Amino acid sequence: QVQLVESGGGSVQTGGSLRLSCVVSGFTSRPVCMGWFRQAPGKEREELARSDSYGNTNVAASVQARFTVSRVNGENTLYLEMNSLKPEDTAMYYCATDGRASIYYQYCHFEYWGQGTQVTVSS
């Protein structure tokens, strides 16, 4: 059974930091392609970062200066370090996975999604 469990969300003030974690289970392959997304009320889902089996990562230009993605080597655990948070970062943050290993992040197709963790940034 595929499971994605996100944690680390919460409420912070402007300028604060949070570290989100995502653990994927249920796949025999590791590490699989994983990514972080967010969706604010009334807005479209936005991709933030992705990470592949080879240790390659990509972070969206819109958050690149403030967000860092990392993962435990060889494991299906992905982190999103968020610094200098702004009220516009308020959203539900989701982890997703392709479920496949041995592919580059450009070719990830995210089919499995977590329940999300809420991030709220107050001014």
Pairing-aware structural class of the strands and helices? mainly beta
Helix share bin: under 10%
Radius of gyration based on Cα positions:
14 Å
Number of E-type strands: 11
Portion in strands:
over 45%
Show unreliable segments: none
Which word captures the global form? globular
The largest sheet is:
7 strands, mixed
What gap, in angstroms, lies between the N and C termini? 40 Å
Listing every helix as H and every strand as E from the N terminus to the C terminus, the arrangement reads EEEEEEEEEEE
Mean pLDDT: 95
From the structure above, extract its key features.
123 residues; mainly beta; seven-stranded mixed β-sheet; globular
Structure, described:
The protein is mostly beta strands. It is 0% helix and 47% strand. Strands 2, 4, 5, 6, 9, 10 and 11 form a seven-stranded mixed β-sheet that branches. The chain has a four-stranded antiparallel β-sheet with strand order 1-3-8-7, with no helix packed on it. A hairpin with a 5-residue loop joins strand 5 and strand 6. The chain is globular and about 45 Å long.
